[in-house]
Each structure stands twice: as C-alpha cells, then as structure tokens.
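Table 4 source record.
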Amino acid sequence: VIGAGLLDKAGSYIAPLLKRGRTAIVADATVAALHAGRLIDALAHAGVEAHLITIPPGEASKSFEGLADLSDRLLALELVRGGLIVALGGGVVGDLAGFAASIYKRGIDFIQIPTTLLAQVDSSVGGKTAIVTARGKNLIGAFHQPRLVLADLDVLNTLPDREMACGMAEVIKYGLLGDADFFTWLEANAAAAMARDPAALSEAVRRCVVMKADIVIEDEKEQGRRALLNLGHTFGHALEAENGYGEALKHGEAVAAGCALAYRYAASQGLCSPADAARAEALLAAVGLPTRLDQVVGHPFNAAVLVGHMAQD
C-alpha cells in the first residue's frame, strides 16, 4: 500500500492479519524516536498490543550478534507464532527483522513499514532477508515474504537528503534494468522526487514496486530473471566490503557507483552503447550520487581485491 498518512491508519491494516497474541515492533533508535509512538498509538486504537524493540542504527546491527540479540528479546516477549513482527525502518531493520521472523519458532509473519525511499522502492518488497558477515553482504539469509508492506510517503519528510539520494539510486536502477519510458520520466522528474513532491514520489515508488513485484512473482528464489535486480550491486557490494559496511559509504551510494561501473564495463564489451552508459551516469550524478571510483571513500582500491569480493557475490 503506497500513500500518505498510512502510519496513523496502520492499525486498520494490521489488526486483520494478527491471528492471536501481540505484536513486536522492531526499529532502530533514530526511527523509533521519530515514528514509533504514532505506530503504537495506531495499533492500540485497533486493539493491538504492541511492544517496541529498538536496535542501534547502522549496518553493524545486521550481524550474527544483532540477530542473536533480537531473537532473544523476541523470546523474552513470549511472542507466539500467531503474533506478528513489524519492521519499522530502512533496509537494515527490514532485513534483520525479516530474517529473525523467518527463523523465530520456525517462522512467524512479519510486516514491513519502510521509512526510507530505498526501502520503500526495493528492500521491503520481495521477501529477501539477510545479515552481513565478515565474508560478504547478505550471504546468510532467507526468502521470507512479508504479509503486508505499508509505504507511507509522509515519513520521507524526516529523511536526510543523503538518504533520499541513496533511495534514488535504486529508483534509477529500475529505469536502467528494463523500463526506458520510466528512465526518461526520471530524467524529467527525479529532481521533483528528491524534493519530496508528493505526485512525483508516489509515481516513482509505484513504478518501482510494480516492476519488482512482477519480477519476484516470476522468479521468487532468484534462479533467473530476478538476478536483474542486482544491477550494480556486485560492483557496489565490493566497494561496501572495502569500506567495512560503515556510514562512510552508504548502500545506495555504492549501488549508484556500481551501476555506472556496470554500464561502462558493458560499453567496453560492446554490450551497450557508450551513449547509453553516459546517459545512465549523468542521471545518477544529477541527483548527487557517486559514479566513479575516485569519488568513492577508500579510493584508490586494489583491483584484485575488489574482483575477489565480486566473485563471492
């Protein structure tokens, strides 16, 4: 469900999905301070008992240690299998809470309420959940589909501009991977979406979700066409690994650089035209994203080390 004001209406969407018991809301400390109170109130209004579990912000929470801590806190709540886990936050919270839901008592339903543009257009949809290990990103995880995704466009008003740009990296990716009309629309409207224009944002999120849903329905477990959704990610994950998955290089920034690298590589191999590669790079740069290695934290990189990371992806 995509729209404005959904957080305050969340109880009417979530209550019918609760089989029995209570709900655990998982959010990082930043998002919890901004939005958790309204969600708890909305659930209470619908007769749903909710308990908030906060985790530290950042990729470091998406670890074996973070998973163990979250699992223990869910068990301490005595959450029953008929209960629900609600992931309130960006991709880190969605991935971690979703993975915990997939293994808690051998599987419990969960709901995604993504609070970043990146999560609304990509990571909250499709059922991929995972954690990060020393050997790579998202190599330990599960396919576990959410029962519901509520993409409230209003929460993006509290999102820093850097995070909006990171989300635009994934939005642009959808134009690049198979929708030329959408890409052309983005060339004209990306700035409006970045400025949080409601109509532009709604259309951008809708187009991305429709495209991802179509691909996931066809190939849920990534045996074929779903691999398209990793455009730019194999390059990008290597750059993230070299930066230790920290705040210095955010996921969307790595994906942007990765998409530009992938397009330039494709052009060098005769798989697309240099003009297409330049057009892709220009739109990414126009929203303030890095497109070249010398713009990425950690430069210069060791090529052999980057390729080694890519081989694991």
